[in-house]
Amino acid sequence: MNAAVRQFKEQSRQVSGDLRHRKLIQTALGKYEVKRDEKKAAFQNWQAARQAAAETKWEAINHLDQHLVDLVRRLEARGTIVHWASTGEKACEIILGIVRDRKARSIIKSKAMTAEEIHLNEALEHAGFEVVESDLGEYIVQLRKEAPYHIVFPAMHLTRGEISELFARELGSAPTDNPEELTMIARRALRQKYITADIGITGANFAIAETGMISITENEGNARLTAALPKVMITLLGIEKVLPRLEDLALFLPMLATAGAGQALTCYNSLYGGPRQPGEADGPEQYHVVLMDNRRTELLADAEQRDALHCIRCGACLNVCPIYRNVGGHTYGTTYSGPIGSVITPHLRGLQDWKHLSYASSLCGACTETCPVKIDLHHHLLQNRRNSARQKPSTAEKMAFKIAGVVMNHPWLYATVKKAVRVFQPLHKLVKGTRLDPAYSWTQTRDLPSAPPQSFKEWWKDRAT
Are 34 and 144 part of one and the same domain? Predict the structure, then answer.
């Protein structure tokens, strides 16, 4: 059992047994569902919107080569410096090079899941640079020295009281349970960071091939300040974020807001196409865009599962997943949690090391049903399971299926096993849930179904006589 599997099992057992934590998450996501359904009802036809979004992303991903060329050509025409990063390590290296060339001292950063994916903050801090998260939720978890809990709501697992204690300890503020006061405490601490930062780093929600522009959507205005005040702006994005046309945002921006946060439209929606132009009041003197692959083209080559690249990182599948709602975001041990994380993490980080995530599912299909771009998530989880078994079947699995094959192919043996199960069932009850139980991994949390006193075949034979 590798470290990732061990950590998942131990933490899921601990978190699922924490009733206070479960109630906190269930309450938060229950409120989200009410708002999401209200905003979905405002669409003329939500299912038609999903289909249109899925078809647009299909076009974008299946013609990604051409769209990336168009995007880069138009970005560079306005003075943007574009970098290609084949791996996460290469992306970190590029960004570190920019920071060193500018002799920067401090960096302000807005929310970027791609940066979390490649552990960019750790790389910059290890090199001696100060990095401050400007998104409130990200800033809170950064002060706690932990990873974001959720793709959209990084600190949703914390109460106001816990945040107040954190600010009192780290920022020296007075205790308060008032959300506005807590926000102002963080705001006062962050404003000075914007002013003194030499470099601003952002993520991106979409990249428009037609116009060569980067679309960033947010609720706090922190990404705008991150882009406007420092002299150098760096945007890190995965290559799958490309959309073909500017008009596509008319669908994707309200869809992202609805599915992600139950909003009609996110508060701030900005487009960036290059460094500050003559006559413009603000913006960076130098703008860098880092286009990162990091094994995305390997997923693109998989015709069966490439639609996982359609993901717009709305977090809707996490919000409805019964596993996520009980074990929480940190249990997954990886940047992308929930159903979408369980599908793409084995592709991004190695199938054999992360195949266990694809088994952390009830296969209820709620994720597929809610996905705004119609990714076939629950079937992809099954495909990951199949692929991992084909690639490296375990000795125990091979032996179990060989024995099952022999039993199933010999009716007399199958009948003998059925009778043996009934005979030994009372003995099983004595060891149920203990290490002596051969079905321990199942019975420690579930009941093993009782064998029926009579099979259908036996019942039919008795009936006929």
Answer: no
